[in-house]
Specification:
- The complex is a heterodimer.
- Chain A has helices at 2-24, 38-65, 68-100, 108-129, 136-147, 150-155, 157-160, 177-220.
- In chain A, helix 3 crosses helix 5 and helix 4 runs antiparallel to helix 5 (136-147).
- Chain A is mostly helical.
- Chain B is built from 1 helix and no strands.
- Chain B has one helix at 4-48.
- The radius of gyration of chain B is 21 Å and the shape is rod-shaped.
- Classes of the chains: A mainly alpha, B mainly alpha.
- The A-B interface holds A 32-34, 36-37, 40-41, 44, 79, 83, 86-87, 90-91, 94-95, 97-98, 193, 197, 200-201, 204, 207-208, 211, 214-215, 218, 221 and B 1-4, 6-7, 9-11, 13-14, 17-18, 21, 25, 28-29, 32, 35-36, 39, 42-43, 46.
Chain lengths: 221, 49
């Protein structure tokens, strides 16, 4: 019931976000229409970071308590983080080509984001290959904690390396009020989508565990 | 309007990736449904014999 209500709210939020991006915000003067990629590129990046933070929290809590729900949170959030990360890594070059003239350059933020994405893909591979091993959640938790060290590096990459190596603009570039509102509408929509999908994926993981346990019981009986 | 195709490609990417993920979840849910049916029939067999 609650899940259905969230789905309706999410659907409405998506429509509002689409209207805000394509009907409401003015076209940016320098970049033109292509700047509208900003409204789903940046919220996707922030959603990926939030998902990786949930992996971090879930991993710490799993090591502390050994409760399966925390492991399910970490695994589910990692999947969603990789999904949003993939969106970032595809939409970024599509925005870069008309603005910077190249799809890709090995500049700090692009490179650190690609490394972070690869590490979380590796996390999912470890979890997948070791799905039947009892140590997989513990190994995953350690990886989930260590991997998070990359996230601040990506976020602060524009400050940590010198300006001549950067293509990305500095953080907190001022936007005009309409654009700022649209940005926050998109953030809210993407975060709601993230939390909804994490909840759905966690429920699926819970059922998977129950099926495995039931199968073992039947085999043992 | 020259860059409209980049905007279209980027916007499509969001939906395609999201759709692919949801398809994956649906496939896994179906697989679990089949596994549950198999387990139910095993339980019935055990109870019956």
């Amino acid at each position: 019931m609650r899940s259905t209500l969230v789905s309706y709210v999410l659907f409405a939020a998506m429509l509002i976000a689409l209207a805000a991006v394509f009907l409401w915000v003015p076209t940016e003067k320098e970049m033109g229409i292509i700047q509208r990629i900003f409204y789903f590129h940046v919220p996707s990046a922030m959603s990926a970071f939030l998902a990786f933070f949930l992996v971090f929290i879930g991993s710490i809590q799993y090591l502390r308590t050994r409760e399966e729900k925390w492991d399910r949170l970490a695994l589910s959030a990692a999947e969603l983080g990789v999904m949003f990360g993939l969106i970032v890594l595809i939409t970024g070059p599509l925005w870069a080509k008309p603005v910077w003239g190249v799809y890709w350059r090995w500049e700090p933020r692009l490179t650190s984001m690609l490394i972070t994405f690869t590490i979380y893909v590796a996390y999912l591979m470890v979890r997948d290959y070791g799905a039947q091993a009892s140590q997989a959640p513990r190994l995953g938790a350690v990886m989930g904690i260590l991997a998070f060290a990359n996230v601040p590096l990506v976020y602060y990459a524009v400050d940590l390396w010198s300006a001549d190596q950067q293509l990305h603009p500095p953080r907190n570039v001022g936007l005009e009020p309409t654009m700022e509102y649209a940005k926050w509408i998109c953030y809210a929509t993407f975060f709601l989508l993230l939390f909804h999908l994490v909840a759905q994926r966690m429920e699926l993981a819970r059922i998977e565990s129950a099926v495995v346990r039931l199968r073992q019981k039947l085999d043992d009986a | 309007m020259d860059n409209l195709h980049y905007l279209f490609a980027a916007f499509s990417t969001v939906w395609i990736v999201l759709f692919a993920y949801l398809m994956r979840l649906t496939k896994r849910t179906k697989e679990l449904g089949l596994q549950l049916e198999e387990l139910e029939s095993k339980i019935r067999e055990k109870k019956g014999g």
